[in-house]
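Re: [ENG-882] Designed sequences occasionally contain unexpected residues at chain ends

Forwarding the minimal case from QA. Structure tokens:
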């Protein structure tokens, strides 16, 4: 699933359309059935903003469009009228360029879902204190790893950056939240914010443990492990030496 840094990079690219009168179309039949293009066609795009794993487009007349990419969606910016193969979900055509959404099944003409989100890890500066307050109110029996993926607590962190941030902070995803100190929680959040901001700014993401199960840890040489975690069974990656903690249940 695209994570917060991917959405922030997309928002940065799509700034090229801000201030322009947009011609909108939905070539994909499922997207066409939602009638989104008709509501925004001919309106001026006033802003594009990334919030967690969402893109928020604000158009003239108070019209708001929320896009969530789910597992496989992506936004691209290309020259206006450039030949393409396939049927994108949405095309936002400006004077010289067009934003194209591929495989993005969530398009809503409201932003109600954003009210459930925690602070965005990629805000400048990130509201670490607000995130810590939410973590204090969270279920303390949950694993640290699954807790930091909860978008109602912290918005924007996905499985890859969770793994990398906890490795950087030397924290096991298999520690219960109640056993993680305030300083350790702060350290994990600060690592996530730093790594993800570097990815936004550079366009590159280096990996130390994510999807490297069975390979040596680049810090200590111990074999990296992986195991499903939480109700969604998202795969956690960690070094059992650098990130000492409990063994995952059933492992």
């Amino acid at each position: 699933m695209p994570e917060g840094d991917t959405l922030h990079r997309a928002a940065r690219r799509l700034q090229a359309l801000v201030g322009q009168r947009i011609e909108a179309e939905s070539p994909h039949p499922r997207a066409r059935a939602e009638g989104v293009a008709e509501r925004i066609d001919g309106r001026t795009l006033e802003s594009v903003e990334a919030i967690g794993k969402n893109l928020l487009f604000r158009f003239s007349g108070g019209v708001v469009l929320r896009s969530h990419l789910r597992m496989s969606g992506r936004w691209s910016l290309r020259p206006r009228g450039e030949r393409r193969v396939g049927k994108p979900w949405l095309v936002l055509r400006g004077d010289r360029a067009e934003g194209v959404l591929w495989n993005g099944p969530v398009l809503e003409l409201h932003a109600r879902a954003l009210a459930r989100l925690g602070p965005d890890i990629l805000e400048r500066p990130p509201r670490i204190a607000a995130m810590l307050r939410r973590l204090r109110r969270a279920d303390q029996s949950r694993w640290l790893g699954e807790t930091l993926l909860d978008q109602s607590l912290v918005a924007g962190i996905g499985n890859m950056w969770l793994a990398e941030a906890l490795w950087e902070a030397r924290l096991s995803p298999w520690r219960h939240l109640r056993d993680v100190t305030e300083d350790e929680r702060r350290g994990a959040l600060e690592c996530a914010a730093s790594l993800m901001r570097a990815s936004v700014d550079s366009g590159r993401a280096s990996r130390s443990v994510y999807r490297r199960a069975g390979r040596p840890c680049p810090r200590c040489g111990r074999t990296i492990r992986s195991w499903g975690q939480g109700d969604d069974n998202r795969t956690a990656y960690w070094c059992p030496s650098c990130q000492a903690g409990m063994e995952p249940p059933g492992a």
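QA comment: On inspection the terminal residues look reasonable. Strands lie at 23-25, 45-51, 54-59, 63-68, 74-79, 90-93, 97-102, 106-108, 225-229, 234-238. Proposing we downgrade this to a documentation issue.
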